[in-house]
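ok trying this again, last paste got cut off
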Amino acid sequence: MSHENTSFTFLQRIELETLWIVCRFIAILPHFVRHYIIGGFVYLILAYVLRYRRKVIMHNLRNSFPEKSEKQLNQICLNSYKNLTEQIINTLGQSGRSDDELRRRMLFTNAEPTMKAVEGKSAIFMTAHYGPWESGSIVSLKFTDHTFVAVYHELSNHVIDELYKRIRQHTNVELVSMKRMMRHFIDNRDKRPMIMGLIADQNPTIRPNFHWYKFLHQWTAFYEGAEVLALKYSLPVYYFSPRKIKTGYYEGTFTMIYDGKEEVEPHTITERYARLLEADINRSPEMWIWSHRRWKHTPPAELLAQKF
């Protein structure tokens, strides 16, 4: 399924096709070459030449782990560059890959009971920029009785945005922008059960009366679109937690955080998501992407005055 923007200029089309060829070339290389030769080179560039957003990473780490020494934080920083490199290679390496090849990259601890629980009905899967965040294509191959709707954030660079769409497009995956998520579900909910896959740890646009969550020793804002959708249409919500087995290979676990029926207070679903993600990050901090300016918004003064 093509998502190509027909308004691209000739030069943009050349750029897009060139990048796609590069991605396809990387994807067909042996695992060792992709991750240990190309990946090793990319890691050295990111960590020691560009020192990619190192100030942002260290600032985020210091605020999130005030109990850790500078030596420990520096080691997490270097390990996070390794993870970032691995995820870049993972993303580029799924370009045009077959379903069987993708399946081999992810095992699941409890996919079958989760599949049974959501049989015949739509559900929401929440994950984060933690480990293999582009794993939605693999999850979609497991839950074949549903259409997997990968909700994505549109990029300002239209060529790169289109490239990512191509990379993410696999069997049983439907790509929907974040701003169209609700409308897409409303328009298609009676056609076939859907799994709405959301990476929910991005920094949202702050609105008046926005709810703030305690997260990693900081007041943090989260997108609450998943909670709004779940409560409005009584959808079960699962948190997807990946664990690294070895470079490029993972094991995923689904944890129900809302059954679609429970009477809950506002923000409860998002709070449960935040606590599970926080536990994952505390367990393996290097697997989260620390280079995002995650805490660029300032919470209200009355919250800043409170101690954690």
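PB: full thing came through this time. The beta strands are 106-108, 123-127, 147-152, 173-177, 194-199, 213-215, 218-220, 237-246, 249-258.
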